Amino acid sequence: MLKHKTALITGSTSGIGLGIAEAFAAAGANVILNGFGDAAEIEAIRARLASKHGGTVRYDGADMSKPAAIEQMIGTAIAEFGCIDILVNNAGIQHVAPIDEFPPAKWDAIIAINLSSAFHTTRLALPAMKKKGWGRVINLASAHALVASPYKSAYVAAKHGIAGLTKTVALEVAEQGITVNAICPGYVRTPLVEKQIPETAKARGITEAQVINDVMLLAQPTKKFVTVEQVAALAKFLCGDEAASITGAILPIDGGWTAQ
Q1: Which residues are known catalytic residues?
Q2: Collapsed DSSP state (helix, strand, coil) of residue 174
Q3: Inter-residue contact 92 to 86 (CB < 8 Å)
Q4: Closest listed residue to residue 7, CA positions, set 72, 79, 90, 86
Q5: Which residue of 21, 146, 160, 202 pairs with 12 in a disulfide if CB–CB is 3.0 to 4.6 A?
Q6: Going from the N-terminus, what domains does the chain have, and what CATH number goes with each?
Q7: What phi and psi values does residue 227 have, to the nearest 5 degrees?
Q8: Contact (Cβ atoms closer than 8 angstroms) between residue 141 and residue 184
Q9: What DSSP line would sit under 7-62, residue for residue?
Q10: CA distances from 198 to 97, 193, 225 (A)
Q11: Which tens digit of pLDDT belongs to each residue from 156-204?
């Protein structure tokens, strides 16, 4: 399905990003991984994907908070592959605290990585997509692109920003064979969410079990975490010809959370 396509997925050394990388590699795409982590573990992931699926798999450790590093990463990818056909903006961090106790440095980091990085990757990847007349930009937003939760001011602001960026760019490139969409997962039990559990427990003065049952899954009528595989399947569908008329969409995959 994605043979001869090249996909760059930011924040793809674990969690949702890695799940999407796995799905794209299985569909025949060349994959560029990005993210932080132990170098040996990342190389093992890269080698496993290449060996299992037979495509080219690269890793670029660009810091998504640094525009110069992002520019170098995009330039290197285009120099090797000619075009980034599929751009998945997934990199993200989180911090949970009341706004009057929210460290300004944390605010700046979340906005840089969760929002500004998508601006930089998109502006740099689009010219080659336009020249080719085909492209897919998929922004991993969140249910928090549509609704808010307490103690997540920076994250909610960034994800609402991603929704606006998605709609705007979709309109700009609508006639050029490029679609731009945002996937909005509810709670997926990734390393990022695992880290939120004790932080939210501390912020709210409750137990970690109460965070899972009374905060996270309370919001999702299904009472189940969304799975990485479900999000990856939606991302892969958006890359297909069947999804060519889906653009500028903000797509919840949240167990009914934002239907309430």
Answers
A1: 155
A2: coil
A3: no
A4: 86
A5: 21
A6: 6-186+227-252 (3.40.50.720), 187-225 (no CATH)
A7: -100, 155
A8: yes
A9: EEETT-SSHHHHHHHHHHHHTT-EEEEE--S-HHHHHHHHHHHHHHH-S-EEEE--
A10: 12, 10, 17
A11: 999 999 999 999 999 999 999 999 999 999 999 887 788 889 988 998 9
